Amino acid sequence: MDQQSLNFEELYENLCGVLQRTRVAYLVSCLDAYAHSTLQVSPKIDHAITILWSFTSFRDLSKWEDLMLSRLPESPSQIMQWQNGSTGISSLRKNEADKLYNSIRSIANFARTNLYAQGNEKTFRDALSDVLTTMSKLNIPFQPVERFLDITDGEDDAWGNPIPQCRFLPDALSDGSNELALLRGQLCSKSLKDQELAAYSLQAFHDVGPDICADLQGAFNEASMEVKMAVLYSLGETQIAENCYSLLESALTSEKLELRVGAVKALGKLDPDKYAARIIAVAFNDHDTPVRRSALEIIMENNFCSTHRIELQRRIDDLEKIAMEKDPNTSSTALWIFSNICTDPERLDSVLKSAFRVNDQFLVVYQNIVLEPAIYDRLARHRVEIFKRILEYYGKVKNPESLLVLSNIAQAGNWHPEFLPLVQQLTSHGDSRVQQLATRSLRRDR
Question: Which of 382, 389, 399 is nearest to 434 (CA)?
Answer without folding.
Answer: 399
